[in-house]
Amino acid sequence: MMSLRNKCVLVTGAGSFIGSHLCRALHTQGARVIGFVKNTNAFKQHTTEQHVVDISDRLRLGQLVKNTRPDLVVHLAGNKNRGLGSAEYRAGYEINLLGTLNLAEACQELTTLSRFIFLGTSEEYGRLPVPFEESFREAPINAYGVTKLAAIQFLQALVQAHGFPAVILRPSIVYGPRQDVDMFLPALIKTLISGKQFEMTRGEQTRDFLFIDDMVNAILHALNAPDVVGQVINISSAKPVRIDHLAKKVAQLIGPGTENLLNFGARDYRPGETMNYWSNNVRAQELLNWSPTISLEEGLRQTILYYRTVTLAS
Fold first, then answer.
1. Quick one: how far is CA 40 from the chain centroid?
2. In this predicted structure, what is the pLDDT of residue 36?
3. Are strands 8-12 and 32-37 parallel, antiparallel or unpaired?
4. What is the pLDDT of residues 141-166, one digit of tens each?
5. Which numeric CATH code is attached to 8-175+210-238+278-293?
6. 247 with 188: CB under 8 angstroms?
7. Mind listing the pLDDT tens digit for each residue in 42-80?
């Protein structure tokens, strides 16, 4: 990979789960990291500068981009509401589509910009047959997937019309230390470590989990890989696991008797639940020279250790 030393890298959503891990990796490689965050309580380590900005604020966003003049941009900020109502679609539209339009518009004025990384979601595939392939015509079924796909189509139009240096990464479910406990795995781990019952669905869904270090490594590869502008690239483990099997594995790793805390079937599946959700990652191997290196068991061990440490410290 090309050296990132002294490169100016703008990361939107720098205080998020993926963003905070990415900023640390960029800092380690000697980059000058500019973090855009939504609030002042965001994780602040490993950024050279941090600015509080709402990406729907076109004028402030544009001025900040003009002032910081990044060489590379990684756009992680977004609305992740997976609802099915008009309010969720409107919120996703304003942040995921219009926010991306605002950022791309500001970046078009930069003569220094060599790469613009956008994170989509495997939820853009909806209930299509698995494994998901980038060649599929997407069929999202919730606000998150629909509005992310709309942003991607806008960026691809910019690539075609203006040579805008956008690359789209479409990750599966990323997990690891410091993730918000509103996500399934950290909620499961934290609850079981605390010795409490964990209520969940029957767990017949299959999912594709990717450890955070592998996700960050994929982004780093995409920042300077040749011949990838305009491409959509799945970033995944390509190894589906049933949710009930995953929950039992987590319980076994936490300790004897923990499996008894799993209450399968206590919750209904979400409306519009996608039962099978995993992606092919051949294109990432070919174009980015990237493959995941952390096994699910090793990733779970590291994640459990983190939440155990946090629980003991609290």
1. 21
2. 96
3. parallel
4. 999 999 999 999 999 999 999 999 99
5. 3.40.50.720
6. yes
7. 666 788 999 999 999 999 999 999 999 999 999 999 988
Q: For the chain, which residues make up each domain, given as ranges?
A: 8-175+210-238+278-293
Q: What is the mean pLDDT of residues 304-312?
A: 90
- Are 13 and 19 in contact, with CB atoms under 8 Å apart? yes
pLDDT of residue 84: 76
Can you read off the two tokens belonging to residue 124?
Answer: 């853009």
Listed residue (52, 47, 158) closest to 113, CA to CA: 158
* Contacts with 73 (C-beta within 8 Å, 6 or more apart), sequence order: 9, 10, 11, 12, 103, 107, 113, 115, 116, 117
Q: Is 201 in contact with 138 (CB distance < 8 Å)?
A: no
* Cα 64 to Cα 48, 54, 150, 241, distances in angstroms: 14, 11, 25, 42
Classified as helix, coil or strand, 200 is coil
- Nearest-5° angle of CA 86, CA 90, CA 95? 150
The β-bridge relationship of strands 166-171 and 49-52 is unpaired
Residue 174 has pLDDT above 70, yes or no: yes
- Whether the model pTM is above 0.85: yes
Q: Which residues contact 61 (CB under 8 A, 6 or more apart)?
A: 36, 53, 54, 55, 102, 103, 106
Encoding tokens for residue 265?
């079937």
